[in-house]
Write a structure and sequence with these properties.
With about 325 residues, the chain is an alpha/beta fold. About 65% of the residues lie in helices and about 10% in strands. The chain is built from 11 helices and 8 strands. Strands 1, 2, 3, 4, 5, 6, 7 and 8 form an 8-stranded parallel beta sheet that branches. Strand 6, helix 10 and strand 7 form a beta-alpha-beta unit. Helix 4 (about 150-160) runs parallel beside helix 11 and helix 10 (about 270-285) packs across helix 11 (about 300-315). The longest helix has about 80 residues, at about 55-135. The protein binds zinc ion. The site of zinc ion has 5 residues, from loops.
């Protein structure tokens, strides 16, 4: 019994030894394998022969190279992008510059335009001032032509190189056709002052007045041809003659009164000095003067006063014009 028990103990001891030896051997093999593996990762170790083959290594290198290349490419791309961006930025800057330049040019142009406008305005203002400042005198002589007075007046006007307007009476023109012609030839304006100048007759009715105008027009036309027959002056003026004014206007005439005079009709004879004084007095403060005078018989002082009146008006800055 004892022997059996010892044998069993020996067998068990032997089994234990064997187990231990196998364990050590297996551990040694596994340990070797582990430390010789080129890839010390747990995955490779567990996967056995899954070592990196040379081909794979080249591929890996290739991969690495292509990665690098890709990176380079990417970098280049990035660079290109940057370049492009730079270019774009430069273009953008150029554009902005150009726009700014354009704006600047537009501004300059605007300033220039404004300057020109200002200049124009100034000029216009000066022009307006000039036109506003224009002083015009219309010398008008009524009731001629007369044999003695009219030639003297024409002489003075010729000497002074001034044109005047003659409101002629048809009957007088018929008596002095030569003087009428001279007036016309010397560039003066001849206008209509009725044929008869007979207040009782012409102001008895508007139709009488129109007929008298037409008679005067016919006489004058027969002597000098066409003239300013539609330009008329009422004997004694248009003042208070509303019906006559309407009648002549409807018949196609236009009338001109006066706003200054020498007073030569205010008495049968008025001294030269008084005529000049009257002219100055009535003309005062007016830019446009319609001056009433007469070249009727007996108006010698009108002739005498005329040169001085002309000089006075010139000195006052008046220009002489004729009515139309
Ligand atoms: Zn008259």
């Amino acid at each position: 019994m004892k022997r059996t028990r010892n044998r069993k103990r020996k067998k068990s001891k032997f089994k234990g030894m064997m187990f231990f030896v196998i364990f050590i051997a297996v551990s040694a093999i596994l340990g070797y394998k582990f430390f010789n593996s080129s890839n010390h990762t747990l995955t490779t170790f567990l996967g056995g022969n899954k070592t990196v083959s040379p081909t794979n290594s080249v591929d890996a290198n290739k991969n690495t190279a292509s990665d690098v290349q890709a990176k380079i490419d990417e970098s280049k791309k990035e660079q290109n992008k940057t370049e492009e961006k730079k270019g774009k930025d430069t273009a953008e800057i150029d554009k902005v510059k150009e726009e700014n330049e354009k704006k600047e040019a537009a501004k300059k142009e605007q300033v220039e335009n404004n300057k020109n406008k200002e200049e124009k305005k100034k000029n216009e203002a000066v022009k307006n001032e000039n036109s506003e400042g224009d002083k015009i005198a219309y010398l008008t002589f009524d009731d001629g032509p007369s044999y003695k007075i009219t030639p003297q007046i024409l002489d003075i006007l010729k000497e002074k190189n001034i044109k005047a307007t003659f409101f002629v009476i048809g009957s007088m023109a018929g008596e002095n056709p030569g003087l009428l012609k001279r007036e016309k030839n010397e560039g003066h304006v001849i206008a209509n002052h009725t044929y008869s100048h007979d207040y009782k007759k012409i102001y008895s009715s508007t139709s009488n007045f129109i007929n008298d105008l037409k008679k005067g027009e016919n006489v004058v036309t027969s002597i000098i041809g066409e003239y300013n027959s539609k330009l008329i002056r009422f004997p004694g003026g248009s003042f208070g003659r509303t019906a006559y004014k309407n009648a002549v206007t409807n018949a196609g005439y236009h009338y001109v009164d006066w706003n200054a005079l020498n007073g030569d009709a205010e008495a049968p004879y008025v001294r030269k000095e008084k005529l000049i004084a009257r002219l100055k007095e009535t003309a005062a403060g007016q830019k446009t003067l319609y001056i009433l005078m007469h070249d009727a018989p007996g108006k010698q002082s009108t002739v005498e006063a005329l040169p001085e009146i002309i000089e006075y008006l010139k000195a006052q800055g008046y220009e002489f014009r004729t009515l139309q």
